[in-house]
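Annual report, structural modelling task.

Input specification for the magnesium ion complex:
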Amino acid sequence: MKFPKSVTIKEVGPRDGLQNEKAVITARDKIDWINKLSKSGLSYIEITSFVNPKWIPALADCYEVATSIEKQPGVTYAALVPNQKGLEKALSANVDEVSVFMSASETHNKKNINKSIEETYPILNNVVSEAINEGKTTRGYVSTVFGCPYEGEVNVEDVMKVSEKLFEMGISELSLGDTIGIATPNQVQVLLEQFLKRFPEDKIALHFHDTRGMAIANIYASLQMGMTTFDSSLGGLGGCPYAPGASGNVATDDVLYMLHGMGIETNINEKKSQRQPLLLKLP
Ligand code: HMG
Ligand code: MG
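The model returned the following structure:
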C-alpha cells in the first residue's frame, strides 16, 4: 500500500474547537494557546471567525484575538468569514487567509448562515474576489458533505455543484466537511473517487468530526486515496452549534500519533501540540 510521505495538518481548534464552547474562555487564554500552537511546527492555524457574535458568542473577541497573537513566520493564520461585514473586519485584523463556508444541503445552509444556497453564492463570490484583491489566499468549506442533520442523505452531485461554484469564485483550497461525523471509510473513498476525477488532490482537504469514532478510519481511507491535507482540532474539541448531534473534530494529537507511527511526516512536534493546560479549564 502506498501512503503519502508527508501530510499537512490544519489546526482548527481555536475556531471550530471553541465556537460551541459554553465555558467562558478569555481572549488572553485563546491568544496564549494560539501562540503556543504557533511554535509547535504547525504551518496553518484557523484562529477565529468574523461572524455575528449573536450567532457565535464564543468568538465575539475575534478582532482582539486576531490582532494580539504573535505571528510566526511560515505559519498561515486563517479566519472564517461569512459575508462583506465579516470580511471588512477580517481585513482590518490582517488575517492571512479568508475561509468562506456554506453547506451542500439547503436546510443546514439556512440554519447556519440564514440564506439559501442560491443566495449564498453572490455573497461569497464578493468576499472571495475582494479578499484575493487584498492579497489574501482563500479557502472554501463545504459542510454536510456526507450527510445533513436535517435532511439526511446528501447527493454527491450536490456536493460537487457547491464545490465547483467555490472553485469558480477563486478559492485556492476546498475543505470537505463531515459536519456531524457520520461518514464511513467506504463512503469517503467513493466520494473522493468522484472528486479526484474533477479536482486535483492538492486542492482538497478533509475535515472530519468524530461523533462515532470514525474520523481516524476516514483519514486512513483518505490517505489510501493519496490525500495529504486534513483539518483537526487539538484534544478533539469542536462542533457546529447549528448541526444538532455534531461532536468534536478529529483530535490533532490522535492524527499525529497515527501519522508519525506510520512514518508519515507532518513537521509538527507532538509534545508541543499536546493537550495544553487551557483545555483543563473546560467542563
Ligand atoms: P443575518 O442575521 O442573516 O445577517 O446573519 P444580516 O446580514 O441580516 O444582519 C443582521 C445583523 O447581523 C446586523 O446587525 C449585522 O450588522 C450583523 P444589527 O443591524 O441587527 O445590529 N452582522 C454581523 N455582525 C458581525 N459580523 C458579521 C455580521 N454579518 C452581519 N460578519 C450571518 C447572517 C452569516 C452573519 C449569521 O448567520 C452568522 O454569523 N452565522 C455564523 C454561523 C457560524 O459561524 N457557524 C459555525 C461555522 S460553520 C462550521 O462550523 C462548519 C465547518 O467547520 C465545516 C464543517 O464542519 O462542515 C466550517
Ligand atoms: Mg467543522
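Residues 276-283 have pLDDT under 50 and may be disordered.
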